[in-house]
Amino acid sequence: MRDEDFEKDDPLYASGKRESGTSWTVLNGDSKVVSSALATGSINCVITSPPYYWQRDYEVDGQFGLEPTIDGYVGNLRETFAAIKPALADDGVVFLNLGDTYYSAKGRPHGKDDKHRSRRLPGLRAVDGPGLGLPRKSLIGIPWRVALAMQEDGWTLRSSIIWVRKSAIPEPTSKDRPWRKYEHVFLFSKSPRYFFDRDGLDGEEDVWFIEPDRRSLARGTHYAPYPRALVERCIAVGCPEGGTVLDPFVGGGTTMYVADEMGRSSVGIELNPDFCALISENMETLGEPIG
Ligand SMILES: C[S@@+](CC[C@H](N)C(=O)[O-])C[C@H]1O[C@@H](n2cnc3c(N)ncnc32)[C@H](O)[C@@H]1O
Fold first, then answer.
1. Is 291 part of any domain?
2. Cβ atoms within 10 A of the Cβ of 131, count?
3. Distance from the CA of 176 to the center of ligand 1, in angstroms?
4. For atom 19 of ligand 1, which residue has the closest CA?
5. Does residue 198 belong to any structural domain of this protein?
6. Domain span holding position 192
7. How far apart are alpha carbons 7 and 44 in whole angstroms?
8. What pLDDT score was predicted for residue 168?
9. Which of 17-21, 61-65, 121-125, 201-205 has the lowest mean pLDDT?
């Protein structure tokens, strides 16, 4: 439902306002490019889960996650956050969820996944072929590589929160290592003093036990939604009431739905226009008066 008033190369896909005074905006494009157009200081809190390295195909040209080198992937993310920085308020924070990838170097394509179309990746993944510069079977350490690159760029790393899923997906083919049950949620600030409400932690500290959602508005055409409770926690601690949340890799839109329900404005950036259409439709429905 693109608003025809906007130019073709304008990233604005759809937007709306709520009676409470908050607003929502969906931008279609590459977050590394689009973020630099956001108004200075207009964002209070960034909550996002970018594509992990060689885990899924989001079926759109220019997507992150399928770079031939580790440095290429880390570079794309650090440049995106550098482009976001001017838009983040001086007392703003970033919650960055990232998962890791193993360097299989098997020399043959990743096994077929008939259930998940998005997990079928084109040809030989960079993590299946030779030349990544690590011993075969290595855990790459992607989350920390990104975190340290952002630190080099001047971001203050305040916490490496461990998000634990008790019901994590089993990895029965991995017989010589523990299966993965956690991911990272890095907390960065732009300045030494920033908005943070410890009450929102609900008694937990830097280990968060949050289960995946069984049902999610972000499912359907989309593949990897994170749980609403994860976003709720980040908003409760990191975004003042009435503030604005940005998700530069908004996917199925979880961040925007939760922000809206918690009385925050939201901005989502997404490269795949099909996901922009899904989110816009959901946001319009969520805003309809009940009864
Ligand atoms: C892991 S998913 C996000 C899922 C989201 N947290 C949710 O709950 O639905 C990452 C998203 O980033 C999008 N994406 C990939 N490269 C992008 C880029 N350069 N700019 C903007 N979006 C991108 C993908 O299309 C995908 O929808």
1. no
2. 9
3. 32
4. 30
5. yes
6. 3-286
7. 28
8. 78
9. 121-125
